[in-house]
Design a protein that fits this description.
Length: about 170
């Protein structure tokens, strides 16, 4: 089952996310997450965030509609997959961090800070995407002296990440 198919499944609170983590033959790697599915999910996260800005009372009440429950479930699935250290392809990792960053949910900051520590000495494109996700959540990851950010500035990005992590 792909993430797109999973997104169409009604939210079922007693269903373990791990049931959906079985390898998929048609996926880009051994997880259910492909780049296309993650990009589609990122757009859903972004739309939900924009809607929450238009109607802040809906999020403040703590009551989530079915769409909100599904998105929270899918975000949890992404976090569990990333935390499992499943040896995912860097393209998939970048797309997963991109999707989480589009949620703009401050509750994801501790998870992403931990993941930045893990990814820091790995692929520069991946840890750059974690940095961008944190920036989306209001964290000051990049040095204030920088007026632009680029994935090509791997050493500057690494220095900023080390400074941010303290």
């Amino acid at each position: 089952m792909t993430v797109l198919e999973l997104a169409d499944v009604p939210f079922i609170s007693n269903q373990s996310t791990w049931e959906f983590m079985k390898p998929c033959e048609s996926s880009l790697d051994e997880s259910i997450f492909g780049v296309r599915e993650l990009m589609s999910l990122a757009l859903r996260f972004e739309r939900a965030y924009a809607a929450s800005l238009r109607c802040p009372d809906s999020r403040a009440s703590g009551e989530l509609d079915v769409e909100g429950q599904e998105l929270d479930f899918l975000a949890a699935t992404i976090r569990e997959t990333l935390a499992a250290e499943a040896g995912l392809d860097p393209i998939i990792l970048s797309a997963a961090y991109f999707a989480l960053g589009k949620r703009c949910d401050p509750a994801d900051v501790p998870f992403l800070r931990d993941r930045l520590k893990v990814e820091l000495n790995r692929d520069p494109q991946v840890f750059f995407q974690v940095m961008i996700a944190l920036e989306n959540m209001g964290e000051d990851v990049f040095s204030p002296e920088r007026d632009s950010y680029s994935i090509l500035d791997a050493e500057l990005n690494r220095s900023d990440a080390i400074r941010y992590l303290g």
